[in-house]
Write a structure and sequence with these properties.
By secondary structure, the protein is of the alpha+beta class. Among the domains are: about 375-555, no CATH class; about 575-645, no CATH class; about 645-775, no CATH class; about 775-870, no CATH class. It is built from 30 helices and 31 strands. The protein has a 5-stranded antiparallel β-sheet, with no helix packed on it. A 4-stranded antiparallel β-sheet has the order 2-30-29-27, with no helix packed on it. Strand 17 and strand 18 form a beta hairpin. Helix 9 runs antiparallel to helix 10 and helix 11 (about 530-535) runs antiparallel to helix 12. The protein starts with 13 loop residues before the first strand and ends with a helix. It comes from Kluyveromyces lactis (strain ATCC 8585 / CBS 2359 / DSM 70799 / NBRC 1267 / NRRL Y-1140 / WM37). This is KLLA0C12353p.
Length: about 850
Amino acid sequence: MNDDTKEKPISTAFEVTDGLYAVSPLIENVPHEYEYSCIEYYGQHIYLGSTSGALLHYYELDVGNFTLISEVNFNEDRPTGIDGITLLPKIDRALVLSEGRLKMFLLPEFAPASNIPSIMNITELSLLEFCEKTQCYSCFLYTKNLVKRVSITSKEIKVEQKYNIKRIRKAIPSKDAKLLMAAVDNSYSIIHLENELVTPLFKVSETDDEELSPIVTNFGKSEYIVTCGISNDQNCMGLILNDDGEITHGTVVIENYPLTVIVDNLYVLSELHGSKCLQIHLIKENNDPVVIQNVRNQTPFHITKLQTPFITRQFNKELIEKLRYVPLIAEELQFREEQEKAYVARQIAVECHMIIYGKCGIYSLCRKPFLLTISSYGEDTLPILKSFITEESQSNYQLLQKSYLQFLYVLLLTLHMEHIDKDLIDAWLKYIDVADIRVLIYLLGFDIYGDLWIPNGLLAFSKKLHSLKLVHKCNDVLNIIQYLKFQLKETCSDSLKDSANVYLSLDLILLRDNIAKGSSNVDEYEATSYQEIAKELSKHKKEHSETLIAIYEKTKEVTPLLEILRQTDQKRLINYLNTHFQELPDTYSKEMLTDDISSALKDYNDDTVSDVLQLINNLNLDVKRLISSIEDPDTKVLLLEKLGASSTQDLTFLYEYYKAKLTVLNSKLIESSNLPITEYITNMTYNKSPFKEYLKNKLGEKKEYEGCFDVGTKLLKIEKALNIKEGSIIDDIDASFVLRIMITDISVLKEKIGFEKLLDIYLSRNDFATVESLLQANDKVVLKVIDHYLSLNNTRVISQFLNKNTCCINDSGLLIEILEKIPPTIQISVLSGFLFPLLRRKDESTYNLQIKKGILRHRTQNINNIERCLEL
């Protein structure tokens, strides 16, 4: 209401023991010439009444600064003490009672209302209710002989009903206004208004020697507290009664008879006789009331409970410090913290219902907000918190305080529960609107994502819990995390604050567990988590490439997807480019495409080449420009081979490439083929396979052989296309003719180097089968072969050659020449297979000649006979 935002120091005039209530000055200087008897507050106005009839009106010009703006006397004729001020705020009126006279005043100016006469002989009044429809208040007015029920408007006070009940000194109506808890003469009684029945209960004063002022005060909604004693200076009893007059709680023992008793929730505040001490009791169920605090002053003072509370800023500083949000895990931002302070300050509205007043000044007496009274984080605090956080909240401030206490409640549960299990998770979820679930994740020692702000009053406690390694209270952490995520999605998927970072925090826990197990399934995670999951998986790219690819495909992040495909699977990269060529980003340049094609073709296979060709077609690429931009010669050659080389430039490039390639391959082939060639030459098995076939069998699995065969064949085609006449590079590098034998048909080779040279090559290799295929019906060739075979000093070779090729020896002179060449070391029996067919063929020739001669002789004789007959 009036406290400055800068907390004023508590007045040293008051001695306040430690406890729930605090005293704070409102107006420290009031006129000392008066004794003050009553006070009320309305808006920014304070109305103060004195025992001499003076009425003081203070107005709050600015926060915490009250100014006396008027001072009038209730009765101009003589001083009469002010007994009470009753506000009627709905009609901007007030009732002032002074020594039996009830007068209406205007609000807020606090001036007498004209044309409304005063009502006399009133000892007490009880305000009942306000009727919105008629815009009037109901009220009980008590006189010595009657109880009047009146209706009060801004224009009049009208008697509605009268009850013939006498000598009421003090009374409080029940909630339904059907009965009164009243002090009648010296007894507390229950009065049933309908039948005017008075039922005495207890005496006000236990003796007739001293009259005590009766006290009747509401205690809750349907109970009352009354005081009974012997004298003002002795202990007295406060009895708590219900509508039936039954005692419902333990007796409140008060140090001496009070002038005033005020009830504030479960607290009873008693202004003791002498008005220098205020005693505060706590009423607990099933426990005797106990004194918890005292307020004293050397100067007498009074206490009153206001009809309408005011907003005190007495505790703002402490509340702002506790309730403002600060980063638990976040960057500290000064402007954000200032905003938080300002926000909390706007929400705080601590209501104060009680005022202490007297010559010492006017002071607020406020119960500390509940959250400022919490001093223990022990397990016994849990039921207290639970009771408080289940109460209904009416204002923004109450909601703010309740949210803080709910947050504290789940923190204490986390600390004190034996295990962190599904029950605890359910408790956190119950208060998820105020307690960010990421705090629990933080307490378990896991990383959390996003800015996490919590009430400043819980910051140190949260960090302390974090240091306790509470994760050890989980029997199965992974199961708890999975359950938490499931419940979040089931129960608060639409209302979860910062859901992306909450799920990300959970997903990263699950992800790291999966990584440790060597598995990860993208469908386990939220789409909003994919980006961070991809970052985490990128640390283990090889092991989790498939998951990364799946994530990038779902998020349509083409650039990182292409990057990981480049690193893991070039063929798949080309396939992706083919199927998504219309979705490629602008950042995917032709240079990148060229590099991707080059990389893919390095791992050459037919499918890859086919995919590359399809990609070229899909993207409608300029083939010539593409090929010219490729720096890797192997890739360029591969494309030229598949796309076809037609220009002289491309053919020349291929020619030079093949020459260089073949030179290297041939050199390696020679190194690897020396032993097999020697082995072949020294092998005198006449029926061995031809040299060309032998090389294929022996070297066919060697990449040098395949390379030489492939490149050599291609080179010959290019030479033909370029019409190269000065001789093939093969001639220069293939001195042993091994390469040419491998890649060239024998007929082509014969045409190129001549029969004689070709025969010499195969003879030098002892290629018996190929030599046979080259034999001609030429005595010179046959003799040359025989000479070479005889030089081998191998009877089997010469005999098998002669035996298999007798058809080439048709001339007796040749036969004689051959026989003359055969050394005497070779026995004639070895040559029988060769000689017998020849000799038999020779005999057959002689016999046939004799037959022919006989036939001719016979024919000639027949002709002569015919001629002779003709002559006759």
